[in-house]
Every structure is written in C-alpha cells, then in structure tokens.
Amino acid sequence: MAEIASPPTLKPSSESYSAKLVDDEIPTVDYCMLYSNDPDQESLAIEHLGQVCQDYGFFYLVNHQIPEKLLDALFKGISEFFDPSTLEKRKVYSKKDPMDRIRWGQNYSSGENREYIKVIAHPQYHFPPNPSSFSDILDEYYKEMRKVVMGLAKAVSKTLGFEESYIEKAFNLKSGFDVSAMNLYPPNYVSKSRIGIPDHTDPGFIVTLVQDVNGGLQILSHKGYWINACIPRHAILIQLGDHLEILTNGKYRSHIHRVAVDRNEVKRISVATLHGPSLDKFVSPAPEFVNEKHPQAYLGMTYKQSLEANGSDEIDVQSSLDQIRLLKV
Ligand SMILES: O=C(O)CCC(=O)C(=O)O
Ligand SMILES: [Fe+2]
After folding, report:
1. 26 lines ligand 1 (CB under 6 A)
2. ipTM of the predicted structure?
C-alpha cells in the first residue's frame, strides 16, 4: 500500500465562538495497558479509564492494534472516493428512501459544510461496491475497529465495578447497530461558513473517530469550555455516546462537539463511527445507578425508538437526548 506523506495541520479558528477555546487538554488511554499481564498495571489502567470517563467523556486511544498501514489506506481510499471529477457517480447514493443503507450528501450552508458518505457497518455491512479495493479496506477497517470497541466495552464494564460482559449484554453489542460517516471538509474546497458540523452529541455506546489532518474538531468540556482536539497521528479519538449516559444515569456523560473548517485551505477527512446497541434493545438507566440521591434522569426506550425520536430515521441520526432526559444531571 502506498505511503501517505505527512499531512498539513489545519489551524482551528476561534472567531465567532464566545466560550473559551483552549488547545488540547484531552487525556490519553493506552489500550494495551487495559489488558496488561501485570495485575497491578491493569487495575491502575482501569482506574484511570474510569476517571477519564467520568471527568471528561472523551480520550485519545493509543496502542489500539489497528495497523497504521490500514488507516493510511483508508484515508487514501476515501480521498479517491471523494475525487471532484467523480462527483456525478456518487450522487447515485443520495437519499431516496429512509431504508437506504448507504447515503451520500453534500452540504454547503451557513450551518454545515461537508461532503459525506454514511454506511451501516454492523450487523450487516453495506459499502459502496466500487472500487472493490476500497470496499475491502472498509471491510477490514470496520472489523478491526469492532474488536477495539468490544475490548473497550469490557474495560468500561470493569470501571463501573461489573463483570466484563456487563456493557455487551446491556446493549446487546453482538448485534449492535453501527453507523459510520466518512466526511470530507470542506466539501471540495468550498464552504459557506466556518461550520463543518454544528454542535451535537451522538447516540450509542461510543463514537470512534480517526482523521488524516489534525485540527477542526472541537469538544465542549464538562467544565464549559471548548477544546481543540489535536489527535495524535494514527490514534483514535473515543467519545462516550448518549446511551452510555442513559445506562449509567448520567455518571458517564456524552458531550457536545462540532467541526470548524478554516478558510477552505486544507482538506480534512474523518471517519466517525457510532457504535450503538442493537436496534431492538430497550435501554434505560440501570437500577445500580438509580437511588434517592440520583433519581432516574432518563426515559427508557428501544435504541430504534430513540434514534427516531428526533424525527429523523435511524441512519441520519442526531442526538435525541433532549427528548429522553427527565432531569438535568
Ligand atoms: O469529523 C469530525 O471530526 C466529527 C464528525 C462527527 O462529529 C459526526 O459525524 O458525528
Ligand atoms: Fe459527532
């Protein structure tokens, strides 16, 4: 596979944002340490992960075992897929029906500036069949990423003091519904504002994010200021999803994030995958997290119902946390 040259850095813009914007303050979690053969090291790593989930809700994951060559091939494949000269060909994936499993879109507006292709990556794979080398790379990438996600489900269960299969069972992750967005910002160098994607949280257990060019993603911390995410090359940014917040009754919260694009100068590709419960899984705050001091703060409903609660379908997902929340935590 061809090597990709070191990418340029996209400088974040702070204009037009009122809340404080700081550079990187995002913790790092070492995936291998969560499974260390040394029990002391392992328990320290699990304790650290629990602290990070509670205090931040997002972190850089390093030593995750996804080959760097696979990530580089993924970015190259996406870059070729979004080639401006083949724009007409990909319009075939424009949304025609709510049941479409592959969906393409291009937005140039004051509220959103990106080109994207969304696919369902689990429980069944739905990828653009051409070019075949690209769908093979996607297949490999999503399989590798699922291993990481299942591993994190075990580790997060332990941070909560449960057996390692707790999260997997609570979300029925073996049949989990994963939607992945491959994004190009700005859409072929044209944007109508500095917003790539506006403020939002994401549904599901966790969101995994990889990118080819640093900068652009901004995360609102629980302390109320924005952080520019400077994801180390080949690391994965993990963000906790709304349904982990619901399950833990607000102990592990999701958080608002957005993408800034900067003066159309740099092309950035990201792959954000929402790893969710199975569509029919009923998710509500677990009894272990509900007590007099922490009354039930969210409604229970199936994952499918919660995806549809925002008036959208299950692929064009947006957070429905506002409709599900009973109390502010
Ligand atoms: O591209 C990014 O950095 C973020 C994408 C995102 O937040 C999403 O697709 O939900
Ligand atoms: Fe997101």
Report:
1. no
2. 0.99
Interatomic CA distance for residues 184 and 7, integer angstroms: 15
pTM attached to this predicted model = 0.92
Determine if ligand 1 sits within 6 Å of the CB of residue 180. Answer: no
Starting at the edge strand found earlier in the chain, the sheet holding 21-23 runs: 21-23, 226-228, 217-220, 257-260, 195-200
Return per-residue pLDDT of the chain as tens, 329 residues: 333 344 444 444 444 345 788 776 899 999 999 999 999 999 999 999 999 999 999 999 999 999 999 999 999 999 999 999 999 999 988 877 777 788 999 988 888 899 999 999 999 988 887 778 899 999 999 999 999 999 999 999 999 999 999 999 999 999 999 999 999 998 877 888 888 999 999 999 999 999 998 889 999 999 899 999 999 999 999 999 999 999 999 999 999 999 998 766 678 999 999 999 999 999 999 999 999 999 999 999 999 999 988 777 777 777 778 888 888 87
Class of domain 21-324: mainly beta
Pairing mode, if any, of strands 28-30 and 58-62? parallel
Q: Where are the domains of the chain?
A: 21-324
Quote the ligand 1 centre to 153 CA distance (angstroms): 21
Distance 218 CA to ligand 2 centre (A): 10
Residue 247, SS3 per DSSP:
helix
